[in-house]
Amino acid sequence: MMQRFPTQATVENPRYGQLIIGPPGSGKTTYCAEALKFYRELGRQVGVVNLDPANENMSYEPVLSVMELITVEDCMEHLKIGPNGALMHCAEYLADHLEDWLLPALRKLGATHNYFLFDCPGQIELYTHHTAMARVFERLERERYSLVTVNLIDSHYCSEPSKFIATLLMALNTMLRMSLPHVNVLSKADLLKKHETKLHFNVDFYTDVLDLKYLLDKLDDDPAMRKYHKLNAAICSMVEDYALVSFQLLDVFSTDSMLRLRNHIDKANGYVYKAGEEQTVNSLLACAVGAETEAARMEHDVRPYME
Ligand SMILES: Nc1nc2c(ncn2[C@@H]2O[C@H](COP(=O)(O)OP(=O)(O)O)[C@@H](O)[C@H]2O)c(=O)[nH]1
Ligand SMILES: [Mg+2]
């Protein structure tokens, strides 16, 4: 987790935003719906802003949706382009209408909300190659939102070493490109128990990303992957050298899991340093120095998803 130091002390009315990203189907919309309820119960003035122009089955009531501005379907019909091109076009269109659409709407909502969950589009190329979403995020930062990217990745990707190595590379690439406080999440962790027989290592191997030598050995077991040994070794060593990628496990339907993730996110975007619902010196200190023991962390973060 990349962490931001407290800058809010000088800001009059701090505003916060979680940028929920991750491949289609990784659980972004479900997370937004559950986080909305959860944060509301904590008393936060929170709302979801849908920035995904192809978001179907929104299970929450957004305070604002990009689909009021443009939809993938309209683009496909009017521009006679395919779904991927239409999505890129929508992202460009959004980035071109920040000053006359997104920001005025957010400022208006600012009267009643100071915490936004941005449900973002999933296509990875929007974050790794394209600049439109980066432009949106940069502009929000300049608008003095304390942002954190919450990158959801289906924990199913742990089931095969080759999938996991691709996940690591994708997470690192996104983190470096976005250069924002960042929390990587393995979503649908409740399903890990079901897949556990397929996992080659303990769950904490995947969350902590400390020693990838074992992953490399496993990759070499597969003849199809063995011929890429040098490439895989280079990727593993790069991920280890940066030492930035680690994951939080999330089961959106578990209150404890949502609470643990909230603690990480609050540290990452600096919410914890501001007059939030946890204002005591002890809770600040606990967050600041990571006062939890390794055993306690294992008990809460890893154990529920084992056996
Ligand atoms: N078991 C389980 N399923 C989940 C969880 N989060 C999301 N899902 C399911 O994953 C599917 C895709 O979720 P969705 O939120 O639409 O993904 P999006 O495309 O990233 O917005 C849906 O069927 C959700 O019910 C979770 O924590 N546990
Ligand atoms: Mg969605």
TrEMBL record:
Subunit structure: Heterodimers with GPN1 or GPN3. Binds to RNA polymerase II (RNAPII).
Assigned GO CC terms: cytoplasm
Species annotation: Drosophila yakuba (Fruit fly)
Name the UniProt record assigns to this protein: GPN-loop GTPase 2
Family recorded in the similarity comment: Belongs to the GPN-loop GTPase family.
Role summary: Small GTPase required for proper localization of RNA polymerase II and III (RNAPII and RNAPIII). May act at an RNAP assembly step prior to nuclear import.
Gene name of the encoded protein: Dyak\GE20068
Record-linked InterPro entries: Gpn (IPR004130), Gpn2 (IPR030231), P-loop_NTPase (IPR027417)
An example molecular function term from Gene Ontology annotations: GTPase activity
Record key words, sorted: GTP-binding, Hydrolase, Nucleotide-binding
